[in-house]
Amino acid sequence: MNLDNLIDNFLDSYSTYGAVNIQGIQNYPNRQNVINIVRDIQNLLFPGFATNEVQNSELLRYRTGETIHRIAADLTRETQRGLLYLCPQEQKQKTHCYHLAEQTACALIEELPEIRRILLLDLQAALAGDPAARSNEEIILSYPGFEAIIVHRIAHFLYENGVPIIPRIMSEYIHGKTGIDIHPGAQIGQSFFIDHGTGVVIGETCIIGMNVKIYQGVTLGAHSVRKEMQNRKRHPTIGDYVTIYAGATILGGSTSIGAHSIIGGNTWVTESVPPNSIITIN
Contact 200/218 with Cβ under 8 angstroms? Predict the structure, then answer.
């Protein structure tokens, strides 16, 4: 085997087909850097739960400041890369993109206390909704559904603020870790609880109200995956205080589940149902 020829073949492929992430050629956001940002934010929201670093109350202020500064710097850098990727014609306006990225990173950090407040309501919903849950700490440490909603609320803020690529990296990272697939565009109200969670799919244009509880294998999806549906509402609207049991599939942008309804396990729902409905397999 001639290694020099093999190396040349790879370089020819890089040059011909692209799909490389190298500064000076194409400098996209770095997946591992984004994952590190997610972990830093998790640790900022719930200190001592997401890392093996021992927390000391006397150093909490210093650790918090250190983490915030690192998030600001790292997220600004990766967001700038995303903006330059999205608008390659602005390559000469890197300073402009940097300022936009810095503003977005600072806006997220300013929003994190509010995100934490909402997550604490999600935490209370999990504790109240699962008889097996013994404490808030158990949920933070071990429940995949809660971790998925932590990352979603971060990714959703960035998505709503026009950050490209990075929200999807975040959502697909936690999808791979938990088996819960929530598009960052989905709008999810407070006091949300996913029990068990594996196989849950929540689409981009889904709207979920407050105090909603869903179980494993639930799909909130679209009737069609045709590309021309890209900028239309394709996924259902779920009202407040709805419970959706395992394996249920709810499809369509015009499909609405009324408040206080119960959707039974393994049901297939493609039409709207009024409030206080109970849907089961006939």
Answer: yes
Say if residues 70 and 40 touch (Cβ distance below 8 Å).
yes
pLDDT in tens, 82-122: 888 776 554 545 667 888 899 999 999 999 999 999 999 99
- Burial of 104: CB neighbours in 10 Å, binned 0-12, 13-18, 19+: buried
Task: List the structure tokens of 218.
Answer: 């639930």
Terminal-residue alpha carbon distance, the chain = 64
Which tokens in the block code for residue 8?
């040349």
Other beta carbons within 10 Å of 278 = 10
| Rounded distance between C-alpha atoms, residue 175 and residue 197, angstroms | 10
Amino acid at the residue 44: L
* Of 276, 134, 124, 140, nearest in space to 193 by CA: 124
Q: How many residues does the chain have?
A: 282
This prediction has a pTM of 0.91
Residue 114 burial by CB count (10 A; 0-12/13-18/19+): exposed, middle or buried?
exposed
List the 193-194 sheet strands across, edge first: 193-194, 213-214, 243-244, 262-263, 278-279
Q: How many CA atoms lie within 13 A of 127 on its CB side?
A: 14
Residue 250 phi, psi (nearest 5): -125, 125
